[in-house]
Design a protein that fits this description.
The protein is elongated. Helix content is about 0%, strand content about 35%. It is mainly beta.
Length: about 170
């Protein structure tokens, strides 16, 4: 979790909202990150009375985008209203973590509008998009490729516990 300042208030209908900043670190060799998994989670300790928390409909098209600085490198969709999303495969070289260094991946989303017919009908939802550390491996999991070894590498990290946006 490299998300600062943390909890943020945003307006419905806002585009390009930063939802998370995830720091990846590498040891022993450069690693090309190829895919990440994310989840909508419920870490809220004090939700507003009468407000919903964490639903994919808070996001336009139930989609998030993944960025390396100012360059979009991937997308992920929370399909079927579920709380888990696997990113598209990143192009070769799109997100490189240097040996003995770190690099931050930014997760952004467009927040749905509020309207009588939806998708949102009230304000106050708390949207938390976390890194899903439990989803590892080449088949639809978090993974990268070591540039020196050419081996597939699964990150060793737990889920993040982000503050979210409301």
């Amino acid at each position: 979790d490299d998300s600062t300042p943390g909890y943020t208030i945003v307006n419905a209908g806002t585009t390009g909202v930063t939802l998370a900043r995830l720091k990846f670190s590498a040891k022993n060799e450069d690693i090309e990150i190829r895919r990440v998994n994310l989840q909508i989670s419920n870490n809220a300790t004090t939700p507003l009375p009468g407000s919903a928390t964490n639903t994919p409909i808070d996001l336009v098209g139930q989609q998030i985008t993944l960025w390396d600085g100012a360059t979009q490198i991937g997308t992920a969709v929370f399909g079927g209203g579920g709380d888990f999303a696997t990113s598209s495969l990143f192009a070769g070289g799109a997100f490189m973590v240097p040996k003995d260094g770190s690099k931050t991946l930014t997760v952004k989303g467009d927040i749905s509008d509020i309207g009588v017919s939806g998708p949102l009908s009230n304000s106050g939802d708390l949207l938390i998009v976390d890194y899903d550390g439990g989803a590892t491996g080449l088949a639809n999991g978090n993974y990268g490729v070591g540039l020196g070894s050419a081996s597939n590498i699964s990150p060793t990290s737990a889920d993040t516990n982000l503050a979210g946006v409301r």
